[in-house]
Amino acid sequence: MNTASKETKEPAAAARANRTILVVDDEKNIRRTLTLVLEGEGYHVIGAETAESALEILASPNTPVDLAIFDVKLPQMSGLEALERIRKEEATRDIPIIVISGHATVNDAVHATKLGASDFFEKPLARERVLVSVRNVLEATLARRALAEVSRVELAKYEMIGKSAPIQRIFHDLEKVAPTRASVLVTGESGTGKELIARAVHRLSPRHDGPFVKVNCAAIPRELIESELFGHEKGAFTGAQTKRRGLFEQAHGGTLFLDEIGDMDLVAQAKVLRALQSGEISRVGSEHVIRLDVRVLAATNKDLGREVERGSFREDLFFRLNVFPIRSPSLRERVEDIPLLVFAFLQNFAKENGTKPKGIDDAALEALAARKWPGNVRELKNVVERMAILSGDRVTIADLPEDPHDSPFGEDDTQAELVASAAFADEPDPPAAAPASVTPSSIEALKNCLTLREHREQSERKYIVDMLKLTGWNISRTAVILGVERTNLHKKIRGYQIKRGEG
After folding, report:
1. How far is CA 273 from CA 91, 123, 278, 442, 467, in A?
2. DSSP labels for 139-185?
3. Dihedral class, residue 330 (left if φ above 0, else alpha if ψ from -120 to 50, else beta)
4. What does the DSSP assignment read for 312-326?
5. Distance CA 290, CA 245 (A)
6. How far apart (Å, rounded) are the C-alpha atoms in residues 185 and 276?
7. Which band of pLDDT confidence, cut at 50, 70 and 90, is reported for residue 255?
8. Based on CB atoms within 10 Å of each CB, which residue in 235, 243, 370, 406 is the most buried?
9. 23 in helix, strand or coil?
10. Are 314 and 273 in contact (CB under 8 A)?
11. Radius of gyration of the chain, Cα coordinates, nearest whole angstrom
């Protein structure tokens, strides 16, 4: 496994090992059962008979506890009373608590939830129910802490999340350029968050109290862009029934963000350049000059240097905008940020829909990290939200939709065909070969030859069987190794009529 894969696994996997769980129950058999079950999964367990002794353990800095399981019925102080005390103390208020009861009532469950219990269930305890609850609570807590640690300052300042080197470089650049008046050109693929970078420049600048006005240059018709940018007077053209302030005017005292600047037509480019150079505009149909104080930021997914060479973008405007370039990295360049982004999207989705945040399996995180993501962070967000909708209590690899960019061999067949065509485009046709002698044996041999597709399918089938054998016929693990979704692997197994245990 490569380094990136290991890093993407760590945030979820860490919740399952080296964690300390406090079990509080006056029944010795319950404590012993929970200890055996939890220690069997690698957790470190501490036992306590009373709520009072449990509170002492939780308050001690020498025994940090990651999760506490409290019985409701305890001698003297009850589990719910202890939970209330825990939530009031600053040192313990963030410790997740699971409440269990042998005689649970609806009121107990509601009361525990109101007091901040992470989960509530009844005795007798089912092993799987306990392990699923513990794992979910620990992973949700770990995700919150990871997000808080990495993004407490960053999220407030930049609305971006990441610990990777490319993102940290952007944060460094933002600190330097934001306080200045310099124009910033943000480049990068679609879906990488270019608008977030522009908004961060505005928010960190002295203009943060002024307006931030976004212009999608690709969405405005060519004949209307001048009116949109600079405004117009009443009667300036057919349909101009009222006077209108343009976007430059609306951004006065703040920031104008020209998104998709590479799609702006040359005539509009000339007028934007003039406005940038002079700091003045005139509305369409007016000779009155309006003096403005606007900082212009721009973004594009095109190579403007190449567009200048082609004559489709003005060189002088390019130099005017490209004072301080910032490149927004693709998601492929920041794979280690994928777990943090996934956790954040799951949290935001739950908040927007009024639901409980879901945990996510390691295998699902690994599969997400293994994808190509040509749509970058925007595509990842859409996929995670879809998984959150389709999943049950937690997101598993079974909830991943098929990768539309996936092909059997990990390379787009059309692209491979284009590459192959280009490689032989300038090659002369080979001379005609002399006809070979035709014999009955050669005819029979030709009959037995496989087509390229048949050979490919045979090879793929064999490789799938070999990997299934290697993993003990574990479908999820095999799918991760092959870099395909589990549903896709199931289809291939059915299509190739692979039987369990064959080979």
Report:
1. 58, 73, 9, 73, 60
2. HHHHHHHHHHHHHHHHHHHHS----SHHHHHHHHHHHHHTTS---EE
3. beta
4. SS-HHHHHHHTTEEE
5. 11
6. 14
7. very high
8. 370
9. strand
10. yes
11. 31
Provide the 3-class DSSP secondary structure of residue 94.
Answer: coil
The two structure tokens encoding residue 21: 């769980």
Q: Which residues of 368-396 are buried (b: 16+ CB within 10 A; e: fewer)?
A: bbbbebebbbebbbebbbebbeebeebbb
Q: What is the mean pLDDT of residues 108-135?
A: 85
Sign of the alpha-carbon torsion through 124, 126, 131, 133? negative
Task: Output the pLDDT for position 347.
Answer: 85
Angle between helices 165-177 and 194-203 (to 10 degrees): 40
Confidence of residue 473 (pLDDT cuts 50, 70, 90): confident
Helix (H) / strand (E) element for 251: namely none
pTM above 0.90, yes or no: no
Residue type, 283: R
| CA-to-CA dists, residue 156 to 160, 203, 212, 343, 501, angstroms | 8, 10, 17, 17, 54
Poorest-pLDDT segment among 138-152, 423-437, 447-461? 423-437
As given in the structure block, the two tokens for residue 301 are 């997914």
Nearest-CA neighbor of 364 among 398, 316, 409? Answer: 398
What's the angle, vertex CA 458, arms to CA 454 and CA 459, rounded to 5?
120
Give pLDDT tens digits for 308-326. Answer: 999 999 999 999 999 999 9
The mean pLDDT value of the chain amounts to 82
Sign for the CA dihedral angle at 442, 444, 446, 450 comes to negative
Q: Where are the beta strands (DSSP E) in 280-374?
A: 280-281, 290-291, 295-300, 324-327, 359-360
